[in-house]
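Slide 14.
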Amino acid sequence: MRIVRLLFASGLLFFVMVAAVQAALPRDPQKYFFNTTFGDFTEELATARQEGKQGILLFFEQEECPFCHRMKTTVFNQPKVQEYFRKHFLVFQVDIESDNEITDFHGHPTTQKKFFAKVAHNRGATPVMAFFDLKGNLVVRYTGATTGVQEFMWLGRYAANGLYKKTTFTRYKREMRAKQRD
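Slide 15: predicted structure.
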């Protein structure tokens, strides 16, 4: 009986260790971070409201952008990032060079390229992470890659919790860094 218990405990410990390792391994952001869309963002808003999300995150990118690539391979592929953002937002990619037709959050037909120009105020820098509330209003825009997972998680919490109504993201980051040092 003692051997059976020992084998059971060893097997259980093995499975817990395997699960912990797998939870920390990077995962494909196309599958675990980004949602798929047919490009009608009025429908995506309805889905976000129905699913109890805080809003929608659009990741504006271009193919040759090294900073976009870095976000995908070092931040968006992390399970804790994927789980947090999938819980709070619908997340979609938008190609800033594409002439593919989409419908913006207010029901107007446009192209991905023109939509980006409107959201980014005609600046061509990528990536741009744009958070929209459940009415389709732009509430947070962040241009460039974050410094890493921690800063991106702060950006998500800043948007999800409506902290943009009270302070700037720069101040919020400063406060979070100060709390880490204490």
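Speaker note: The domain at 27-181 is CATH 3.40.30.10 (Glutaredoxin).
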